[in-house]
Amino acid sequence: METNIPISLKAEPILHIGTFAITNTLLLTWGVLVFFLVVGLFLRNKWHVIPGKLQMVFELITEEVLKLMESVMGERPKAERYFPLVATIFLFILFSNWIGLFPFLGSIGIYEHHGGGSVFVPFFRSPASDLNFTLALAIVSVVMTNILAVRSLGFFHHMKKFFNFSNPIHFFVGILEFISEFAKIVSFSFRLFGNVFAGEVLLLIVGFLVPYFIPMPFIFLEIFVGFIQSFIFAMLTVVFIATATASHDAPREHDAVRHIA
Amino acid sequence: MDLESIRLLATAFTIAIGIIAPAIAIGKIGTNASEAIGRNPEAAPKVQTAMILAIAFAEALGIYALVIALIIKFT
Q1: How many CA atoms lie within 13 A of A33 on its CB side?
Q2: ipTM, 2 decimals?
Q3: Closest residue, chain A, to B65 (C-alpha)
Q4: Closest CA in chain B for residue A6
Q5: Strands, E, within chain A: which ranges?
Q6: A198 contacts B66 by C-beta, under 8 angstroms
Q7: Are A127 and A100 in contact (CB under 8 A)?
Q8: A242 touches chain B (CB under 8 A)
Q9: Do residue A198 and residue B45 have CB atoms under 8 angstroms apart?
């Protein structure tokens, strides 16, 4: 290609501490963490019964997420028990997507000289456009789902879902369940990574084609996509937790089947 | 044809063919969801949640094609 659009699939390292490379996505991830730390400490110190504006926003988010979780899980206590994990995933992905969208943030950087030409390396890049970030979140989500299932059903009851020798059909269903745990990790991570990375590329290319005004609606689109993707990530976690912690040979299901039959 | 042009063609065909099925799926999901909301407007929030989840599953396939296309293009 003649035009030199700086798209790189993997995050660029900025500096090295020993053999550990600090990439530009990692820097912005730390930025999000610091942001949450500051907001959390601030809210804890300024907690009032009559909420201020910031407290109001977070109470609204809490209330909405709880309501949504209740509608999926069916009962309030269960929703409250799994709320911290789900809300953390939701807010963390949401803010890392939105911080990565800030205009001008991607244009702070340096030119690095590799052999022939010089390559532009931005200091900050949307965290989810790095597969490491999304893969880590996906593994946390799936492993936590299994741990929570073990905690609410018991170890052997949960393992019976994967290793069941009572009859051939259950045995093969168990194998499928086992594979689907890994498929979950792949689909979680690639969905978020693909959406955010595609958004970055889209914004970059639109900016190259028409620098003024036209990229505006695309930035709105990306704000929407960033919200939807974090929502979907959290929502799928809720659904998987809800199905994993529900006892799968509950009498209710048999009743329902009998009613239909 | 040299390797570079084969790579370009492969990128184009991956994304072009790979996006067909998710597009049809998302169209069907949207049609049925709006039909359901039209018949029973009170159930709109529940239908919307289910719709967005179903769209996410369908869209993931398109995203796989996109990721593969990007890998072919940039590595």
Answers
A1: 7
A2: 0.70
A3: A194
A4: B74
A5: 13-17, 20-23, 109-113, 118-122
A6: yes
A7: yes
A8: no
A9: no
